[in-house]
Design a protein that fits this description.
The complex is a heterodimer of chains A (56) and B (137). By secondary structure, chain A is mainly beta. Chain A is 0% helix and 25% strand. Chain A has a four-stranded mixed β-sheet with strand order 3-2-1-4, with no helix packed on it. The N and C termini of chain A lie far apart (24 Å). The chains are: A mainly beta (56), B mainly beta (137).
Amino acid sequence: MGETSFLELTHGKEYDVLSIEKGWYRIVDDSGEDYLYPPDEFAVIEGNDGTVPVSD
Amino acid sequence: MGGGCGAGLDFGASYGSGRLPLPEALSEKEWRIGRSLSAAALNYNVKDPDTGKVYRFLEGTTIHNVQVFAGKGVRNKLDPKVAHGLSTQIGGKPRDWKHVKGIGTLDVNGRPVDAEIHWFEAAGQPKVKFKVKRWLQ
């Protein structure tokens, strides 16, 4: 979802969620580093099967 | 005997070469998210002028513990692709861009939460690519 943005996210690209922290997704973005992004930036393709840690 | 002035002090080869080693990090002045015109507004949106993305910093929050951790003035350099990309897309010279971190308060689902924020900046250019590295509480 959203627009492609240099060093951030690419529209249509799939990202693995490393963890969910306060509802935000930690992903390795296009800068190659992991950052937290609000969930409304994404459409979930595959739900959490319990392997993605969730913290508040 | 006498050892003379400065005996025992070893300034290292960097002084002899006329160059000081660059620090790993460089502190910068804190900065404040200005108050909006509406006193009723609880939050202040920080818009990344490059992406249009809006982050909701709390109004009046001060971005503190500001440190440059990569790029101009410190030991760790920016990835040349990153520096050139910022220069091309935003402006300035690639060598002037810095990766900076600080602590600020964001509105997360209506709650104020402190976070470590990363962004890029260069002299004469806007601060861009605000990202949340971690929540601090």
